Amino acid sequence: MLNKKTIRDISVSGKKVLVRCDFNVPLDKDNPNVITSDKRIKESLKTINYLIGAGAKTILCSHIGKTGQNKSLRPVAKKLSEFLEKYVPLLKDIYSDETQNIIDNLNDGDVVLLENTRMYEEEEKNDPEFSKKLASFAEIFVNDAFGTAHRAHASTEGVTHYLPSVCGFLIEKEINAFDNSINDPKRPLVAIIGGSKVSTKIAVLTNLLDKVDTMLIGGAMSFTFLKAQGYNIGKSLVEDDKLEVAKEIMNKAKEKNIEFLLPIDHIQSKDTSGIYDAILTEDQNVNDDMMGLDIGFKTVDMYVDKIQNAATVVWNGPVGMFEVEEFANGTKKIAEAMAKSNAITIIGGGDSVAAVEKFGLEENMTHVSTGGGASLELMEGKKLPGIEALDNK
Ligand code: ADP
Ligand code: MG
Predict the structure, then answer these.
(1) Rounded to two decimals, what is the model's pTM?
(2) Which one of 3.40.50.1260, 1.10.3210.10, 3.30.70.1230, 1.20.1250.20 gives the CATH number of domain 7-169?
(3) Looking at domain 177-379, which of 3.40.50.300, 2.70.70.10, 3.40.50.1260, 3.90.25.10 is its CATH number?
(4) pLDDT score for 104
(5) Whose CA is nearest to atom 15 of ligand 1?
(6) Is residue 295 a contact partner of residue 278, using CB atoms and an 8 Å limit?
(7) Nearest to 164 by CA among 9, 383, 2, 374
(8) 61 strand-pairing partners
(9) pLDDT tens-digit series, residues 130-183
């Protein structure tokens, strides 16, 4: 359980409250005024509406994009104005007298948005002077930027040194979803781990091996495990320097009596383009001139069966190259089985969340995380600096 104070634990009425949100939304490549997914904005509304209702003076801030890209939060201010049904001005220069004036004259229930914190180099450097400047606008700090909670930046960690600091409803929801399902799960707990590289998932695999009853492996990652077991993987993606690690993980699973399953068949093709035939393999082996790009039908059946019998399912990493139609079946079937099941279903990881959204199944899951990297670190059992820095209960 989250041991940090939330906005419920403090009085915000009439107070100036600085809220770090995660408005790092994807923008259309051709038109940077168009937001292509407003999930993160919608997820921030509960905290903002609570503050408006409580009569706080709300000063929102967030980054968008990378330092140096100088993307503007203008489309976010517009979206927020629509969702909140009240005008949310964008304050373009954190250091200007105008910004200070507007903030000094806020009325209870007003909301303003500071421009992209990453327009300032100081943000990612966690510069104390910049943190102090941000803190100077307010009397209370609320961190609700789950997607950036794994980074100690000025607007996530730095400001907590200068203000009473609590978390918002989104962070509370994210932490509790992962904590309950991994550390105090209804059993059986089934984890599905896929994605492109074993190397990026070693910490997740190792942490979850201490928690799960069943581990289902998919994605390109499975070929490092299969090669380590002596199977032919053809031209599939593989990390040859991780074969020993793969063996160790499988040995550990055996020692702990955990059911650790690898694909028993695959969809293979000549390359990733989707223009060549996508063929089912007979068994675990991939043809010499082919790549394994999705789990096969027998594997789908086996994994779906495990999902149907689970009380909790945690998923990170697509089980195939789902971005290409020909190789999306496995990932789609996993997502559908989770959506249909009565189990607690938790999805973390940027691409896994994108897959669930692509199939339109978000609403049928218990929790679809708003943070790719941050959710991965939670599944690794790590503490997130942006959350650790908040006041304890
Ligand atoms: P997440 O962001 O959910 O943690 P990853 O970043 O680890 O997931 O992996 C996602 C990527 O893995 C996707 O872009 C997908 O195309 C790729 N992928 C999955 N299976 C395969 C495969 N068999 N061959 C090549 N790429 C794959
Ligand atoms: Mg990813």
Answers:
(1) 0.94
(2) 3.40.50.1260
(3) 3.40.50.1260
(4) 98
(5) 321
(6) no
(7) 9
(8) 20
(9) 999 999 999 999 999 999 999 999 999 999 999 999 999 999 999 999 999 999
Residue 202: pLDDT above 80? yes
CA atoms within 13 A on the CB side of 36: 10
Q: Can you tell me which atom of ligand 1 is nearest the CA of 323?
A: 16
Annotated catalytic residue within 350, 358, 381, 382: 350
Closest atom, ligand 1, to C-alpha of 350: 2
Catalytic member of 109, 373, 381, 382: 373
Cβ(266)–Cβ(286) below 8 Å = yes
Protein residue with its CA nearest to atom 25 in ligand 1: 220
Rounded to whole angstroms, how far apart are CA atoms 301 and 202? 26
Q: How far apart are CA 169 and CA 276, in angstroms?
A: 47
Pairing verdict, β 140-143 and 165-167: parallel
For residues 151 and 125, is the Cβ–Cβ distance under 8 A?
Answer: no
Whole-number CA gyration radius for the chain: 23
